[in-house]
């Protein structure tokens, strides 16, 4: 059993949870994920490792209450335990060899972008974080992202905090002003990652994205995370989750993401009854 040692609300729909899992904490690296099961009747869900503490033996996850399992997970409190907590899974992000990087996070994607920014920062790389949210109430990890970046550009769609506009506007302005990025990491909703990739392609800047959002069971067996990268079939959970964003077929990935939306809505309705 894996005991919850910290639970913190980040906003109305997102929660941070630190779990006692010393063996995973020992090996975890940025970009990897865990699979958890709340109880013996629960489904397995993959969640990115948002942080880890090797000394304390804890692994931090951040989840958004979007379906039955995350609603169930959210009923647990500090001292409760998860039945399964398996990892670290997936390939660690390849972050070596860069001098100045823009890490771009959109909404809940900032939970995945943060460990990438932290790893780059700890490697001595110059890091600009561009984080976008719909409004000020949805902002997460502001202090944490500020701590691991040379500059934090906070964007909100409605201008209620930070600058008004999308992350791509800030990224484009920085590129045009000569920021000199040699690598971009983009993590967030698929339309956002596609928009970032279109922009960086124009400017010939290598770009890595995380396809974590399309994973289902995270084991390479369900086929739910199949995608086309550079004309080849890949599985986000075993070949990724990180890929060269300029090679990903976003149209296909977006279609795949919607495959089980009706079933998920039905399960959530049943859970709430
Ligand atoms: Fe099922 Fe990758 S998530 S095969």
TrEMBL record:
Domain of life: Bacteria
Matching PROSITE patterns: FAD_FR (PS51384)
Sequence ranges assigned to domain FAD-binding FR-type in this UniProt record: 1-95
Gene3D superfamilies: Nucleotide-binding domain of ferredoxin-NADP reductase (FNR) module, Translation factors
NCBIfam families on file: PRK06222.1
Protein name: Sulfide/dihydroorotate dehydrogenase-like FAD/NAD-binding protein
